[in-house]
Amino acid sequence: MTVKAEMERGSTVEESREQRASGEEQGTPEANGDTTEYAPVAAVLEEWADGTSMHGAAMIANKNDFQGWFRIAWAVITLCSSALMVWQMEALIKDYRSYTVVTDTITTNPHSLQFPEVTMCNTNFFSKTLINETGISEPKTEEEVLQLVYPVDYFITSMRFNNKYLPPQENLTQVITDFGVCYSFQTDAEIFEPGILGGFEFTADLRQDDYVDTDVAGLLVFVTQPGSKITSQVPLIGVTPGKSVMIGLRQKSTSRVREKPWSRCFSEAPQYSQQKCRAECIDIAIRQDCNCRRWGDTNDPGNLTFCGVAGLTTCMDEMNKTAALTNCGQDCSLPPCEHTEYDTSMTTIELSQSLQQQLNELFGTDSRDYFLQNFVSVTVNFEQIQVQEFTEAKAMTRSQLLGAIGGSMGLFLGISALSVFEVLGDLTMLRLAPRLFGYRGLFGLGGRTSGLKDA
Q1: Does the reported pTM lie above 0.85?
Q2: Beta strand pairing status for 237-239 and 219-224?
């Protein structure tokens, strides 16, 4: 505070003392020994502005040391800076309330990787020989379906994992899917060695001579997160007979924000996936409109029997015409919050002429032709012991929002959180508002004297 201001303040205090002295004869609070100082609003504002940390306030309020035009210029500058600060804060809050997320990608190289679940299906659903023997051409129940397929070792002739031979009948699980009866391999063992010399290797005999009328011959391979359900919505790999195939895997793990309203996902895999959701939605529509169920429909089947190939095809055509399946895609639009996927690449190797000659010499021409038309050799393994991790995070957190707002306050007005308390607390709540109730001291309720006016 300047010397001139101190002199004027002293004059004001002296006048207050004279008023208190004259008030003793009139019965005022001063007459009763109250030495409270009374100050006008202008004096309160000037004293507060001189001590506040808010830039510009002292320049505007100090009428003793600065000319009017200088104070007006500072007022304009302060108002413009305040407007810019409010605009910036509004943009920051709007950006925060958009609830956007950002995705961070990290590639890690762990010591080992958990092996995915591998499911194998023959493109031929049922055995022609067993259909003739049982007389079942259109199976209606799970029991009838299983009567039309041979044991697993008729299909998967040999298999090994991490160079260790495994009995197929002890290590494969039989599952009924939309593609008929398939066999799933799942293990808790991990992969330490990538490439063709490790992983899961198996040989399948397609038995084309036992095919029911079908347009294609081959093997369907599904590579999924362990515990996933095989449906018609799951991506697959088709392998032709008479080939040696290497399926290379690249693991991707995704973790999404679960906190609402940032969350744009639902549950987690394998309990939930978009493919599983769509398949279950289609199953429900088929039950309602066709009064039967698909082979892969194991959710609350009730007393409904399987539709059969011809009946299902006819019913699905009618459902497509009436748009009965339209909502399935809409209801399953959210991805899982946590899931693991496997990008695949397939390399096919032709059997050499020398091997074909050996087969011809050992088993004859017929045996060699049978081998080329029915046998498939498949190796599934990771290309690298590497994981690509996709992690979602909030584009702006609450702490980041507060930091950005604080930066705007400091940039435009040079104030901080304490300055806000100075305005709302010291000036408004302790000095100005109490004047409505008779407290008119220079420092308000925070001063040593409160300036209580007798009502």
Answers
A1: no
A2: antiparallel
